[in-house]
Amino acid sequence: MITPMMPYKNPHYHRDYFRKHGEKRRAYLRARYAADPSGQRQASAKWRRTPQGIAKRQDEARTPQAIARNRAWRKAHPEKMMEYALSQRLRRLGLDPLWYHNQLAIQAYACAICQTRDPGGRSKYRFHIDHCHTTGKIRGLLCKRCNSVLGEMKDSPNLLRRAANYLEELM
To answer: 80 vs 75, 76, 87, CA distance in Å?
Structure first.
């Protein structure tokens, strides 16, 4: 016969136990980590991917102290934040930062269309990654202005030719 688990008489048993034996537990964990650091890292990384680990990290990140600390760090390190944002964008497109820097060198550190060296826009240091929205194929790096023009013209060569013809007729 299976009996249900009996609840602890003291609802704070675990908390009280760790307060009483915390140093002993921490010493044990330090010794275990020293014996096999890679195994401990792997176990920790595995736990962090569990729903409980994810929830704990999210809860810790929402504290006012953590929010203030993160905001201060981002303000103090804008260049690292820009690199992080670029790496996230590249990852979503299936690229890596090395590709971006190589492509910039191929394009002589300028926009692929107008050849300006100023990317413009909010990110004064980063060119936009132009890609086909239908196929996902990467076409090159553009300044904000050229990227916006292609977007407004719906990436249509015919519309762009007609716009160029219109301008040439009026000049």
So the answer is: 10, 9, 10
